[in-house]
Amino acid sequence: MAGMRITRPDGTIVEIDKAMLKSLSPEQLAAMMSSLTTPASSSAVSSDPLPQQRPVRSPEEIWNSGKRERVGLFLANQYAVGMVLDTTDIHRDWTEMMTAKNYDLHLEKSHLTQYLTRLAEMGYLEKVKVPGRGVQWTILERLHQDYPQIPIEVIDKIITT
Fold it and tell me: Is the pTM higher than 0.70?
């Protein structure tokens, strides 16, 4: 891996790819390094070893946060950890499940790819470029940890309101 890999004393492994490192300002990099090097006992009380974990948010709060968050919620509720999908598969499922219920949720494939790339940069997906086949996305466990699992009826209710 070109980038950085840090193993904390509690066993947590944090990997940051080269592209993410380049995008960070010196202040952001310093803040991240200080948060990674502080002992786990001084951080907020959490049973999860991920120091960057977000607080639990309601599905409505996530839905109203923006399109990237909507895509993250959709992925967490449609696909299992470890699934490998092409952009075309995700776009087709988004169109069939979301756009069919509310056309305002229509996303062009290129825009969906941008949101998927951002989610990959945040550690929710793994992005692999396959020569001749495009990009494949692997669902990572962190996506299911940060986005709530909700029944399809709740998603339908959120979409239509």
Answer: no
